[in-house]
Design a protein that fits this description.
The chain has 466 residues and is mainly alpha-helical. The protein has 15 helices and eleven strands. It folds into two domains: 269 residues, no CATH class; 65 residues, no CATH class. The two termini are 37 Å apart. This is Kinase-like domain-containing protein.
């Protein structure tokens, strides 16, 4: 522009989410984060969430270009103290997100963009239907289920089950690219509608007892789930200073125990230290070879950043740290996974449900009465035969997950990879993929018939990665 400012015009991808709602909610979320929560977010200058009313013939958002440079371009070159300063700022940003709790759940909108299905927050904002990608990806957008707003955490969890159930009742197949294992092979786990529906039904028998009732942990929050180095901008001249956070599309308002997770920036492979224990280098560090020293120092740095983030959170919003801890608990794991049963995970969740149904465990969840028994009897009861069958199915599922993890490791891509690859990496990844597939077929096939079946089940078909 004439004043030197640079602008960005964003037109949503057709598969980004529901028309109108996705753009309208993104605008409101950015405005709210910037104006109400004091988070550095690009300023929205103009937008149109109804493509039919736009001169461009499409929805759009005009916003200021994020100042600075992407953190991903320089992160590996930063000094430890600079990285630590950034981690502390990210902690402050996430605490600001968690500090404001909404009275209901769904997604945020400007009042002028939402009508009868909304609950008013103030003169400018209201809560309406969710635009979270989990409600629309993998054909979930094709089922007719309520998408909010909801008045309680219980209603949110019940809606997740209703959505997964509707998908299972409507579709014959499951989203293969979202599955953690390679299923359906000889002697392997075979996903079924019956098993998935059974898990969902069992969950509904206990969900009211395992949902946390603490207002802080169950309160509705907006949460940025992609705080990685490409969505964080820093000052080019002072790279330890965050200048902007981008990518606010599809942000739902969820209970804190469901929404909040540690930022991707500080996630790492390796052991997490309990509590606030200071990380240390191994006692025999000086005897390590250069590669082992580097691995030890990298782990030490990652654990230090993780600890620093948690200390900052504990000081500012203790409830947020409680939510992190709750997600790792047995009830928290069940609540966190029940919304993906249509995709995968039912043997694991079934094993968790069996664990929580044991009297000693259930008593920890609901408390004990004066006789030492659970205050509320557990509604779940499994026979020895049912437990045995569940364990067999879970064991098969685990082996299938390990099988896919080995393939992922051989290809050299990240866990959960769905076949997507950048153009400049395509040839190299395709070559490694071909080698991995041949090794897989040789390793798993006892005869030509099995080889043909594994060929069919191979999760990374050409049509997926191109």
């Amino acid at each position: 522009m004439e004043d030197g400012r640079q602008l960005v015009v964003k037109i949503p991808n057709p598969n980004a989410g529901p028309a109108h709602y996705t753009t309208a909610s993104e605008v409101a979320t950015m405005q709210f984060a910037r104006e109400k929560l004091n988070i550095p977010v690009p300023k929205v200058l103009a937008y149109c969430s109804r493509g039919g009313e736009s001169k461009l013939g499409a929805e759009y958002i005009v916003m200021e270009k994020a100042p600075g440079i992407e953190l991903g371009r320089i992160w590996d070159d930063l000094k430890a103290r600079e990285k630590l300063a950034i981690v502390k700022q990210v902690a402050s940003i996430t605490c600001n997100l968690a500090r404001f709790q909404f009275p209901c759940y769904g997604a945020l909108y400007r009042r002028q963009d939402i009508s009868f299905e909304s609950q008013v927050i103030d003169d400018d904002f209201a809560v309406g239907p969710t635009v979270g990608r989990a409600w629309f990806d993998d054909r979930r957008g094709d089922v007719d289920v309520p998408r909010g707003p909801w008045n309680s955490a219980e209603c949110v969890m019940e809606a997740l089950v209703q959505r997964e159930t509707a998908c299972l009742e409507k579709f014959r197949t499951f989203p293969q690219d979202c599955q953690q294992g390679i299923f359906g092979g000889p002697g392997c786990y075979h996903p079924s509608h019956k098993a998935k529906l059974s898990v969902l039904q069992d969950f509904l028998k206990i969900h009211r007892h395992i949902i946390p009732h603490s207002k802080g942990v169950a309160g509705g929050v907006i949460w940025h789930n992609d705080l990685h180095t490409d969505n964080i901008f820093v000052d080019a001249d002072n790279p330890s200073q965050i200048t902007s956070i981008i990518d606010w599309q599809g942000v739902p308002i969820y209970p804190m125990f469901l929404a909040c997770q540690h930022p991707s920036l500080i996630e790492y492979d390796g052991p997490k230290l309990d509590g606030f224990v200071q990380p240390t280098l191994p006692d025999n560090f000086d005897s390590f070879d250069p590669q082992a020293r580097k691995r030890a120092k990298d782990l030490f740095a990652a654990q230090s950043f993780w600890l620093s983030y948690e200390i900052e959170v504990q000081r500012a919003i203790p409830e947020l740290l409680q939510a992190f801890r709750y997600k790792d608990s047995l009830p928290g794991q069940i609540l966190g996974m029940i919304g993906s049963i249509y995709d995968d995970g039912e043997p694991y969740v079934q094993s968790l449900l069996a664990d929580i149904s044991e009297e000693s465990t259930w008593k920890q969840v609901v408390g004990a009465n004066e006789t030492g028994h659970p205050k509320v009897p557990c509604p779940l009861h499994y026979s020895k035969e049912e437990i045995s069958h569940q364990q067999v199915e879970y064991s098969k599922w685990q082996k299938d997950v390990e099988r896919k993890a080995r393939v992922i490791d051989e290809i050299g891509v990240y866990p959960g990879w769905n076949g997507a690859v950048s153009p400049h990496e395509y040839d190299e990844v395709a070559k490694r993929l071909s080698v991995s597939k041949q090794n897989f077929l040789l390793r798993e096939s006892a005869n030509e018939q099995e080889k043909a079946l594994w060929e069919k089940l191979w999760p990374f078909q050409d049509a997926v990665i191109r």
